[in-house]
Amino acid sequence: MKKLSQIIWVALLAFFGGCYPGGIQFYEDTDIVYTTSKEEFDFNSRSTYAMPDKIVIDVEIKDGDTTYIYMKDQFAQPILQNIASNLQNYGWNRVGINQKPDMVMTPSATKSTTVFYSWWYDWWYGGWYPGWGWYYPPYYNVSAYTTGTVILNFSDPDDTNIVGESPTAWLMVGNGLMSNSNDVTRVTKAIDQAFVQSPYLNTK
Amino acid sequence: MKKYLILTVIALTLSLGTLSAQSLTTTSYSIGIPTGNLGDYISNVSGRGITFDYRKLVQPNIGVGFYVGWNVFYAEKPYDTYTLNNQSISGKQYRYTNSAPFMFATDYYLKPGGDFNPFIGAAVGGVYTQRATDMGLYRWEQDAFSFGVTPQIGFYYKIKTFAALSVAAKYNVVTKAGDFDAGQNYLSINIGYLFMGN
């Protein structure tokens, strides 16, 4: 009976070890698109917007000077074109920043790397030879993931607070696990989805 | 005379067998069928579960003891958009619910001592439910320790002197508590190995 119970326990361990539910399998499975808008903001009464031709990915502050770091054009241009075409489809006209646009679209992107790092010591006894003794070789276990985030901020430049900041009228945050393939279509698909789930931006 | 002696020995052996079966211990593979709010959240039937039942026979036809179990429900939801007020979020969702009942239980056996022994019973106690929703790299977790009632119906069929195949349907009524505003009920079909001990 003892043997039988052992077999049952081994079978149970194998059952639960092997049948644990699945989850994320591909980088794309981690992509999410979040949008929100300022309540009661009237997008329909506005029709023009301005957008820079670069995407900020970092800010460096050195000796009091602020320097923006931009995304490479090969990635930034398809993203900017995608934003522009989505806004055009919703009836928005792009104008220069000096032409008093009703709205300003400011795209930015960030990446963040999270590193899991754990280590432990193991040891073995090397014997009583000169120069030998207890020996502690380290074992390391390091893993990391990098997430990419795209942020679109749509705001009214005339709607400013006391220090000249415009509150966000529409915000999109796209986030996902970054792969090494630099697949820009994941970003453009996320932006397309952001407009699909924000029909109130449609001024047509 | 010899004939009577053999019959007496057989009868005595059988009665000893019945008398010595003073406890029933069942380990079962459990298939979970979610209902109600749990079914709305995860509709998939779960093949990941285990239950463990112990009954002390206080009468040949009445067993009292406990019931513990673990059922894991899982569903992968396709890419979709979820909207709440002025906020929307799109992505794939991976939904998990773990349910673990810990209950006092009693069963009534309709044919004690028989090879085929149907039973009905009920268990009362607590159920720990943990729900996790993964979306992107984020996880939302809810959990509760709820009051639970589990009526059950089933039978066991003797395959050896002290062993039987057990089949039971348990309906786990898990009341709303903690992070849940509705009960997390499910039916489980349990197929197991029953050991009759002293």
UniProtKB/TrEMBL annotation, chain A:
Gene3D superfamilies assigned to the protein according to its UniProt record, in alphabetical order: 3.30.160.670
Superkingdom, natural source: Bacteria
Protein name: Uncharacterized protein DUF4136
InterPro entries (UniProt xref): DUF4136 (IPR025411)
One family name in Pfam for this protein: DUF4136
Domain DUF4136, chain residue ranges per copy: 33-200
UniProt source species: Algoriphagus boseongensis
From TrEMBL, chain B:
Keywords from the UniProt entry: Signal
InterPro entries: OMP/PagP_B-barrel
SUPFAM superfamilies: OMPA-like
Signal peptide residue numbers: 1-21
Entry keyword annotation includes Signal: yes
Protein name in UniProt: OmpW family protein
Organism: Algoriphagus boseongensis
Origin organism lineage: Bacteria, Pseudomonadati, Bacteroidota, Cytophagia, Cytophagales
